[in-house]
Amino acid sequence: MSDVIDNVFIYTDPERCMGCHSCELACATSHSSYDFHSAVLAGVVLIPRNKVIAIKNQTTTSQCVQCEAPCLDACTSDCITREAVGVIKIDEEDCIGCKLCFKACPYDSITMVEMPQEEPTDGKKKRKKFKAFKCDLCFDRMDTDGTLHSACVEACPTDAIMITRDSSYRTKSLSLRGY
Asked: What is the pLDDT of residue 3?
């Protein structure tokens, strides 16, 4: 990884992570207008921007490392931006689902999610629609002083997840994930 900017990102300590998935649930609900129980009762699918993975008998999380952002350059609809503190953010409303960012991401950190649609009334076969999702460090929860309050960090019962600028943690995380 060359020329990575000095920005913030999430690091999960695999020695402390117990694979409970609390971070995924917190992420998904923080990006939804529903709380967990309301979403379950309404049948709403909650979409986390991170995922717990098992590697080498350890668990950790996998999410965007807020890198040099080839996804930003690949996006044809200009819905990916670099925000304050280096956060790479996808405007999911404007995403056209072309999958170019997904293909450009060297760390498999972007997820393409099929969006529900109404059945066409003209008898034609409906075409699948997708949107791109990735970790944005809960950018919308940032204080005016720039302090991030990422849902996954707050939800982790073992304090395995942290927000950092230390690039050695980025290297550790990517190395563990096989990059």
From this structure: 43
Find out whether 63 and 49 touch, Cβ atoms under 8 Å.
Answer: yes
- Mean pLDDT throughout 17-23? 96
What is the residue range of 79's domain? 9-117+124-176
Predicted model pTM: 0.85
Question: Which CATH number fits the domain that encloses residue 63?
Answer: 3.30.70.20
pLDDT at site 5: 59
Q: How many domains is the chain partitioned into structurally?
A: 1
Q: How far apart are alpha carbons 80 and 92 in whole angstroms?
A: 9
Q: How far apart are CA 179 and CA 53, in angstroms?
A: 14
Helix (H, G, I), strand (E, B) or coil at 27: helix
* CB 80 within 8 Å of CB 98: no
Indicate whether 2 belongs to any domain.
no
